[in-house]
Amino acid sequence: MEQSVKTPKETSAYGVHALGKKHKLIKRVRKNNPFPEIHGTKVWGSSYLLMDYLENHPIAKGSRVMDLGCGWGALSIYCAKRFKARVTAVDADKHVFAYLAAQASYNRVELKTKRKRFEDLKTGTLAKQSLIIGSDICFWDELTDALYQTIKRARKSGGAKIIIADPGRSPFMKLAKKCRKRLGGELIEYSLEEPVVADGYLLVIG
Ligand SMILES: C[S@@+](CC[C@H](N)C(=O)[O-])C[C@H]1O[C@@H](n2cnc3c(N)ncnc32)[C@H](O)[C@@H]1O
């Protein structure tokens, strides 16, 4: 898990103010809450690849968006702020939500949250979304199939557009190959110099 965006205190990009571990609000949250356990420990760099893509491929105002493995929620905040999207931020780790709440409040947005593994989301819930996103959520081998099955159910039920950003970890590359072969879609190599430096890939389906 090497790729990250350094956030000494705060990174402002794409209208999102992402607080880092050293920000006093995050320090306060950390004092009163356990630290996340499944790598939801900061805003990861791939989030910015997806924000940049959405700047160039905007979604309709008020769209329903689901952010899988939301972590500290920068992507969810971006969609809520930029598109007034009705966002549900989903994560398996209950400990991320205190950090996400602090970031959302600092950015003055409201997000719906759901503690659930993405592979356990009901098909009916997936079917209601117009966009399903996730950044850096395919980092263990077992997540490749879990995510593939989730994407497959989402595509077959409601036909949501799906975009997953990743620095290029091997479980994600396997996922991209499988999705492209069986569900269609494209894998786009993506690189940013500004407003943050980040490299990786976007898997875009639909
Ligand atoms: C590397 S972090 C990325 C967080 C955020 N998307 C970002 O880019 O900053 C991975 C996140 O995925 C969550 N996660 C891992 N496996 C998951 C699963 N099966 N279902 C839902 N969330 C999961 C973790 O708890 C963690 O918050």
What this model shows, in words?
With 206 residues, this protein is an alpha/beta fold. It has helices spanning 24-32, 46-56, 74-83, 96-106, 123-127, 141-157, 170-182; strands at 10-13, 16-19, 64-68, 86-91, 112-115, 131-135, 161-166, 186-192, 198-205. A 7-stranded mixed sheet has the order 5-4-3-6-7-9-8, with helices on both faces. Strands 1-2 form a two-stranded antiparallel ribbon. Strand 1 and strand 2 (16-19) form a beta hairpin. It starts with 9 loop residues before the first strand and ends with a strand. The model has no long low-confidence stretch (mean pLDDT 95). S-adenosylmethionine (SAM) is lined by residues 36, 38-40, 43-44, 46-47, 69-72, 74, 90-93, 96, 117-119, 135-137, 143, 146.
Computed over alpha carbons, the radius of gyration is 16 Å
Distance between the termini: 28 Å
Mean pLDDT across all amino acids: 95
Number of strands: 9
The gross shape turns out to be: globular
Quick one: biggest sheet?
Answer: 7 strands, mixed
CATH class: Alpha Beta
Bound molecules: S-adenosylmethionine
What oligomeric arrangement do these chains adopt?
A: single chain
Q: What name does the CATH topology carry?
A: Rossmann fold
The percent range for strand residues is 15-25%
Helix/strand order: EEHHEHEHEHEHEHEE
Q: Superfamily at the CATH H level?
A: Vaccinia Virus protein VP39
- Number of individual domains: 1
**Count of DSSP helices?**
7
CATH architecture: 3-Layer(aba) Sandwich
Structural class, by secondary structure, is alpha/beta
Strand order of the largest sheet: 5-4-3-6-7-9-8
